[in-house]
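In full, the data:

***
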Amino acid sequence: MAIQITLLRLGRIRYRQLMQVIEHRHSFFHLSYVLSGQGYVVLNGQLYEIGAGEMHYYHPSWTHEIWAQPHTRFEVLDLRFLVTDAAGFEMTKKLPAFIKAGVLLENIVEMMHNIELLGVRRETPLWYETAHAYLVIILSQLMQYGEQTQCHLARTPSSLVAEALKIMRDSLPFGISVGQLAERLFISPTHLTMLFKTQLGMTVHDVMIQMKMEHAKQDLAIDPKISITRISQVYGWKDARHFRRHFKKVTGMTPTDYARCFSDRRATNRVDENWLVFNRSVSDLQTFEG
């Protein structure tokens, strides 16, 4: 499929501290790869924190603004292009807004650097042909990525957090790291952390610990004699001492005291059961004698 693409610009942009580009939109397509530092992007009214190793795509119809965080050297590799045919324009609808660091992104960035190096020979037929070939490959790979991630542009912050919580629950007992969780959701760890803070008021790590503790409490209730060392290993703590500290912080009790409550309750239940058996035996005896 022939795609008509025109490269408009490829270069580096350095943002001074707190420098802000106010809300705007372009008539062209825009890929921006963060080379260093951190900043913020507001895309169609949604705030995202961005950092080195991430790429962002802006469709001509999307409003956006961007600014650098303080005390950081914020630099991006900026690629702007036009798509002038229907097939290519249809392709761009499948491109994801955010691409995390990974093998795919490394390949794309390498191609962008190659186009940048070719810039010394601009206006030559070879440069246009090579740049066009690279751009077609870049867009094709991004489109495949967008299809694999099922067009995650449509996901809301609340749906992302709900999806994250389900993955976290499914990962128990050992759990999942912030980086692994972000990779499963096809977003950056920074963005994931911000979502949990804004939606739940907690970090991903704190939520994971709470989930582990709820399951550990169930295990202790079912089997009060279970080894604390064993249960700490099952839930991914490096030793029983760290597990005890976190358990007491969440529940207000040590694992041993918590298990003892259920052990005592079971002993009481056994006495009650024996009393019922004794009463039944006496009743049966009285009935027989009568």
Notes: Residues 5-150 form a domain with the Jelly Rolls fold (CATH 2.60.120.280).
